[in-house]
Design goal:
The chain has eleven helices and 17 strands. It is α/β, with parallel strands linked by helices. The strands form five sheets. Strands 1, 2, 11, 12, 13, 14 and 17 form a seven-stranded mixed β-sheet that branches. The protein has a four-stranded parallel β-sheet with strand order 8-7-9-10, sandwiched between helices. Strands 3-6 form a two-stranded antiparallel sheet.
Amino acid sequence: MKRWDLIVIGTGLAGLTAARTAVEMGAKVLVIGRGMGSLTLFGNTIDVLGETPPAADMEAGMAGWIAAHPDHPYARTGWLGISEALNAFRDLFPPPYTFDSVGGGNSLVPTGAGTLRPTYLLPITMTAGAGMSAADTLIVGLKGFKDFQGDTVSLHLQCRGVNLSLPRYGLEGLTALALARLMDEEPFRESLGEAIRRQTAGEKRIGLPAVLGLKAPADVLKTLETITRTKVFEIPILPPSIPGTRIFHRFRQFLIANGATFLLGNPVTGADVKDGRCEGITLQNPPLLTSYRAERYILATGRFLGGGLQADMERIAEPLFHLPVLQPESRGKWFRERFFQPEAHPIHRAGIVTDADLRPVDAGGRVILKNLRVAGSILAHHQTIEEHSHEGIDIATGYLAARRALAS
């Protein structure tokens, strides 16, 4: 039986970051996931902390915030660790398709709901949307493409909006993935650019649904900007996320090229635990159950959506290693009285508690499994939705988990 240096369970951004970090440290890595992870559903930009004001100094803002939240996952890494992990992430995306901050801090970018949201790192295809103004922006929708309502977006952003029809290409009913593949074809994007140019009325920026290609989005962007003589930017749309799919494919490409192995599509159903260590895991591949063994393991299965946490009528549980889950004392206290309100629901802080090395601990602070690290949103003491911190937590803790695991 082949034995690995590290097995990463989970194919979200935390698991992929951990795997990539370990591979670069020379480890033999196995990555296991039920599918392509939440990146392909919701990934667009890299949020670190929305509470830091736009254009503020991120280091100073984060240092103060971490000091006020000593139990938060960011307290395990500090700003230095977060910054190092983010730089490693950016290195994976060299020019022309880069991820950058605008102005050195958070920037406000438009969403598919016609609102503005704070984020830290933007792909090059979205940077022109940072700091957009209603007067100089045209929002472009595509007739027949139902995942982006250009009229609604332009109405809420108070911009001018148009819906284009390209009869030659038959856009009616196309999915985001199919449209992104069309964008990769030069004749299509040239036709789209010409159609947009004919609709402009002095605008300097053009907002489009986030489908500017899978293979070479920077080339699509350049073609459209050259033809329209404007700055073009993507606006996130309903799942699936094309920008998130680009991130996933880039990680997977790098990992496979550097010797990592992927097993996707089958769930991990059990763990062999002895004397405070994980000795192996079992993967279900009907009708077979296959065991895989490693010296170290990283659990990065996410929360409820990824199956990392499961809830019944009474309690929240971690189903694989049966780790204790920090949670409200009763189901009646999972949610506040009103669903929409400024304060986060207590259930959002549920998760696994760890020591400084991201090893899971019990209520008394004792390490449960010495060769297991926990990374990503399954960790306790954060509220990623309200904080706008999801990707930052995934990247920072995935990076730290791999480094600490391989250092032990």
